[in-house]
């Protein structure tokens, strides 16, 4: 799951991006975080005078020049503020999925970040094969948060998606009240051929809305879980006639949201 | 990249699907291919009398019952023809990408198959870091074809996407004449904010059309490659404001094509 835009592989035509925690000021000098300095100096092999893109805590984007290298510390100067198109989706989409085997959640977080996901919420479902307990809960959250940060840098996002700690199913139901729209992707609905639900849901989105979408793990959602979600105001959607794997379904949804809100000239959502 | 719908993980509510090479006849007995028999008997641990879905060479779908197990040979009887919604996209989308490191092409083929890809064409580009030569060309094709078959079974496709042998760039240009629409995903266009191109292209698709879309590898396409593609009638498209990785971009395109042609009630394309 590493970053793979090394100098050889990028063709050199797109500047590397990093996030900084402070608010940027033109002319100011900033130190990169330890991981980012390692990436810039060791992986990218940057030299003094080379330029990168920095995004500050207010989602401002700057062109910055590598000013000084002292051991593992990289200091850059902010030399120009870049005013461009936002790379953030106009609706805030939180992807909630059950726990999966192997590195599937790593992929969902990496690809979801590329596709504009606002936040990721791992959840406990009845048919999960995998369980997280004790220290594993925070360890997994930290790992996924690191993947989200690196993917946000590579895809030139203006913010890092938040990775939540593991939520129990009850906590998901309680949390849902805070979202403008709550969706659940449910395969049984797909069989009934009710594909218009997704299109209807997407056209109800307005800029600034928050969306929570729940996906099953490999085992799918139980009827009981779907019933409880519906009682809490979740709408069921389908994601096409083919059976998508648990790690593919969220990427399909995010791509459709991007298409409708960013690619069709529909300005409002 | 294995199949992971084991009995525990599926919740048991969706029948396993396999392809057979012959044309199916109600009541007929068929033997599963060796790999599929292994999967059904060893991984799924199926017993005589259990049912699966079989898709024949004419894309006909049957409910079939496991009739006999003899060592590694599984014989099934076709007991009902299932008339349902097609799981094939109405446009035939061939995804052509440069060669990538690690198992990225495995992922593109697996996920692309889930999302309805018609065929996959690995191509040689100037900035590829990876080269396939000699025996590796057919070995990689065979590996990717196997992944496509397994993904087609899991996603309940009615056909297995064809994986082509490696094409040189000149061969891609020559092959393009056979497609109704030729597209190239090009990052430089994204910077110019010309996102309407994708929407325009998708709305030109009509049922039965064939589409070839070329994607770069990690290094992206060179200006020279893009020029040559344009001279051969390729239209440039963008895939949203974020920088997508080489393995994510084709999945975004396929999701958008599915959305427009399968989910919006637009019957014709």
UniProtKB/TrEMBL annotation, chains A, B:
Its main subcellular localisation, reduced to a broad class, is cytoplasm
The reactions it catalyses are: uridine(1498) in 16S rRNA + S-adenosyl-L-methionine = N(3)-methyluridine(1498) in 16S rRNA + S-adenosyl-L-homocysteine + H(+)
> What's a single GO BP term from this record?
rRNA base methylation
Which Pfam families does this one have?
Methyltrans_RNA (PF04452), PUA_4 (PF20260)
Could you say which enzyme class this protein belongs to? transferase
Compartment annotation: Cytoplasm
Ribosomal RNA small subunit methyltransferase E PUA-like domain span = 33-78
Ribosomal RNA small subunit methyltransferase E methyltransferase domain mapped to chain residues = 88-257
* GO MF terms held by the record: rRNA (uridine-N3-)-methyltransferase activity
Q: What is its EC number?
A: 2.1.1.193
> Which GO CC terms are listed, alphabetically?
cytoplasm
* Alphabetized InterPro entries for the sequence: Alpha/beta_knot_MTases, PUA-like_sf, RsmE, RsmE_MTase_dom, RsmE_PUA-like, tRNA_m1G_MTases_N
Q: Which UniProt keywords apply?
A: Cytoplasm, Methyltransferase, rRNA processing, S-adenosyl-L-methionine, Transferase
Q: What does this protein do?
A: Specifically methylates the N3 position of the uracil ring of uridine 1498 (m3U1498) in 16S rRNA. Acts on the fully assembled 30S ribosomal subunit.
The Swiss-Prot or TrEMBL record describes its family as follows: Belongs to the RNA methyltransferase RsmE family.
- Classification via PANTHER family: 16S RRNA (URACIL(1498)-N(3))-METHYLTRANSFERASE, RIBOSOMAL RNA SMALL SUBUNIT METHYLTRANSFERASE E
Q: What is this protein called?
A: Ribosomal RNA small subunit methyltransferase E
* Source organism of the structure: Suicoccus acidiformans
């Amino acid at each position: 799951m590493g970053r793979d835009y090394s100098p050889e592989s990028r063709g050199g035509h797109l500047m590397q991006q990093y996030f900084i925690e402070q608010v940027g000021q033109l002319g100011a000098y900033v130190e990169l975080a330890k991981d980012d300095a390692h990436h810039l100096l060791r992986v990218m092999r940057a030299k003094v005078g080379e330029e990168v893109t920095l995004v500050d805590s207010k989602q401002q984007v700057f062109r910055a020049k590598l000013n000084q290298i002292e051991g593992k510390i990289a200091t850059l100067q902010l030399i120009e503020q870049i005013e461009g198109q936002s790379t953030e989706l106009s609706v805030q989409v939180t992807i909630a999925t059950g726990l999966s085997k192997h590195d599937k959640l790593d992929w969902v977080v990496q690809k979801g970040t590329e596709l504009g996901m606002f936040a990721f919420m791992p959840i406990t479902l009845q048919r999960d094969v995998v369980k997280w307990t004790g220290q594993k809960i925070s360890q997994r959250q930290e790992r996924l948060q690191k993947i989200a940060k690196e993917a946000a840098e590579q895809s030139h996002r203006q913010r890092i998606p938040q990775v939540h700690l593991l939520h129990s199913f009850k906590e998901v139901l309680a949390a849902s009240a805070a979202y403008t729209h709550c969706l659940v992707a449910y395969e049984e609905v797909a069989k009934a051929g009710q594909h218009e639900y997704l299109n209807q849901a997407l056209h109800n989105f307005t800029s600034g809305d928050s969306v929570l979408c729940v996906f099953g793990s490999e085992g799918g959602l139980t009827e009981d879980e779907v019933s409880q979600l519906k009682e809490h105001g979740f709408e069921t959607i389908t994601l096409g006639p083919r059976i998508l794997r648990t790690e593919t379904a969220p990427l399909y949804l995010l791509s459709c949201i991007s298409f409708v809100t960013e690619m069709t000239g529909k300005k409002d959502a």
